[in-house]
Amino acid sequence: MLQYKINKLKKFLYKALKETTGLADLELTLTKPDGTPIAPIALVTVENDIYEVSYTFDTLGVWRANISSATNGDDKDFAIEITAQDIDSSVDLITTIDGKIDVIDGKVDVVDGKIDSIDTKIDGIDSKISKGGELL
Predict the structure, then answer these.
(1) What is the pLDDT of residue 111?
(2) Fewer CB within a 10 Å sphere, N or C end of the chain?
(3) Is residue 55 a contact partner of residue 41, using CB atoms and an 8 Å limit?
(4) C-alpha distances in angstroms, 103 versus 99, 100, 106, 115, 136?
(5) DSSP 3-state helix, strand, coil percentages of the chain (rounded to 5)?
(6) pLDDT of 55-83, one tens digit each?
(7) What is the value of pTM for the model shown?
(8) Does the residue 26 lie in any domain?
């Protein structure tokens, strides 16, 4: 579930099905946590098949959202939790990770800072060579 802060403008980017460009009926429909619907908001073309829409959520709780286009067949439902805490800055609140991280799945483009040391010890090397046709 997506999480955002109350009363903060949020921009959504959406890639249309079938990479369709020029959609005039692509809309975001929102429903507040109490079930009150918000009038549909048109998405605008950013670039080719990429569209955007912005909205400021004014009520705490879980909102329902739908991006749709009758012309193109788009129909994407999702939930958004609106909180009092600024989720974007929540990383600043984490001071300790209790446990071991086995894998970080991602890419670091830039390390901003000095690295004091790097552990270069190799515990083992798997020297098996595949002949093909098998999972490694």
Answers:
(1) 58
(2) C
(3) yes
(4) 12, 9, 9, 20, 18
(5) 5, 40, 55
(6) 999 999 999 999 999 998 989 999 999 99
(7) 0.61
(8) yes
